[in-house]
Amino acid sequence: MSTREMPVDLALEQRATARIVLIAAAAALGGFLFGFDTAVINGAVEAIRGGFGLNAARIGIAVSCALLGSALGAWYAGPLADRLGRVRTMQVAALLLAISALGSGLVSGMWDLILWRVVGGTGVGMASVIAPTYIAEVSPAQVRGRLGSLQQLAIVLGIFAALLSDAWLASTAGGASAPLWLGLEAWRWMFLVAVVPALIYGALVLGVPESPRHLVAKARLVEAREVLREVLAMRSDAALDYKLGEIERSLKMEYRPTLRDLRGPRLGLLPVVWVGILLSVFQQFVGINVIFYYSSALWHSVGFSEADSFSITVATSVVNVLVTLVAIGLVDKVGRKPLLVVGSAGMAITLALMAWCFSEAVGSGASLTLPAPWNITALVAANAYVVFFGISWGPMVWVLLGEMFPNRIRAVAMAVAAAAQWLANFVITSSFPALAEVGLSFAYGLYAGFALLSLLFVVLAVRETKGMELEDMPG
User: Fold this and answer.
1) Contacts of 393 (CB under 8 A, 6+ apart)
2) Closest CA relative to residue 35, chosen from 87, 76, 70, 86
3) Which of 114, 136, 372, 427 is spaced 20 to 30 A from 72 at the CA atom?
């Protein structure tokens, strides 16, 4: 029997309880650490570059090296989650993030900074896969989009918290390179403060139940039944039996998928896997993380003071948070695909406008400035770009990746797609300093081109998943 043939009273048994919202929020805190850990280096870029004497290529590697760890963590998170469970994997991610925060704040050179950032990136990559997968697996279909969007909300809140703490620490010390407490420079404290949310995350996920789909895959049916009963408030034995049977049928015997299960007729992979990979790649190739990793240095480089650059960056992160809240309200009403279409079109226009503005910059090197009215126009365009991304490609990609794959391949397909995302992020982030030396207009024009390609991709290849049960996802 398909979900569409399910009796109405059984369908109504799955309810969005307060408990499921709290559980999803606790899991999504991994997204907060994801945002915090990846964005915190924004305020430290110039201090690290000057303190360790790094050129454009080396600072690009120092900023982006965590993303290689993220790709590694994302790649192994799926198999690890299938073996240990979703909850235990989230705990491992929290531990790696806490260790990385301590190590990064106490480094003595570029290479040990790279080491600890890769360790933290591994934790981020694991969290980026497991949190949306877990949330999708415990959520009722009618609110799964909104609960899945909590991951992106947590990410943007993490970015905001990182940039706000960067600005506060730099202001308190009198500059990112100035000494603060215990004789350590402010930029070191920017990393060290991440220990606190990592420990909180680790503690909170101790209290969340294991995914019922993982429990069924492990033949722990009594525990799965209790999770469904308590988390989704399913009281009817008939409803519980139906749901357990539905999960068992969808998983069949393939609860430990491997890369072989992703093979298909199109360039060696199933079409749905290629869609997931390209969603991930386009999310990064539109250049969003250039804004969140380099924006303080970027605005400083075109004539704004260090203090103003930090303030602009924090304001942009606030915009990102607000539009993510709007996206959460729209995702289960409007759908995933329409929001992606609007986002791609808006990003293409605003990125092209930014490229035009930066073509009007005068001077070079330290004396580069962006004269009026181009400086204000660039600021408005940058924030409009963040609006279009935040309402679409930011949350929608994570929602889709958490729900679009069939149950039998979800974990490993999610790992492949997330690893592709981190590798794409690394390519964009590590290449930006060199592209910026060629010209900011060229860099943003390139990202505008990718935004236009993303629009064509969504229209032609992305399938709407609004309201569908996970068990009904086509392969």
Assistant:
1) 282, 283, 286, 288, 340, 343, 344, 347, 454
2) 70
3) 136
CB of 319 within 8 A of CB of 386? yes
| 176-185: Cβ within 8 A, 24+ apart | 176/43, 176/44, 176/46, 176/47, 176/306, 177/46, 177/47, 177/50, 177/51, 184/105, 185/47, 185/51
The single-letter code of the amino acid at 250 is: S
With the C-alpha atoms ordered 14, 19, 21, 24, is the resulting torsion angle positive or negative? Answer: negative
Give the tens place of pLDDT for each residue, 138-158.
777 667 667 777 776 788 788
Q: How far is CA 18 from CA 22, 232, 288, in A?
A: 6, 10, 33
At 269 the three-state DSSP class reads strand
Judge whether 431 and 269 are in contact, CB under 8 Å: no
Residues facing 269 on adjacent strands: 266
Angle separating helix axes 440-461 and 271-285, nearest 10 degrees:
150
How far is 296 from 292, CA to CA, in rounded Å? 8
Q: What is the pLDDT of residue 349?
A: 96
pLDDT tens digits for 408-463? 777 778 778 877 887 888 888 888 878 877 877 898 899 999 999 999 999 998 88
What size, in residues, is the chain? Answer: 475
Tokens 């997330």 sit on residue: 418
As beta bridge partners, residue 362 has 369
Distance CA 389, CA 233 (A): 35
Determine phi and psi for 184, rounding to 5 degrees. -90, 140
Give me the pLDDT at residue 470, please: 58
Q: In the chain, what are the domain boundaries?
A: 3-472
CATH classification number, 3-472, choose in 1.20.210.10, 2.40.50.100, 3.40.50.200, 1.20.1250.20 = 1.20.1250.20
- The answer to whether 224 and 247 are in contact (CB under 8 A) is yes
pTM of the predicted model as reported, rounded to 2 decimal places: 0.69
Phi, psi angles (nearest 5°) of residue 7: -55, 145
Q: Is 362 helix (H, G, I), strand (E, B) or coil?
A: strand
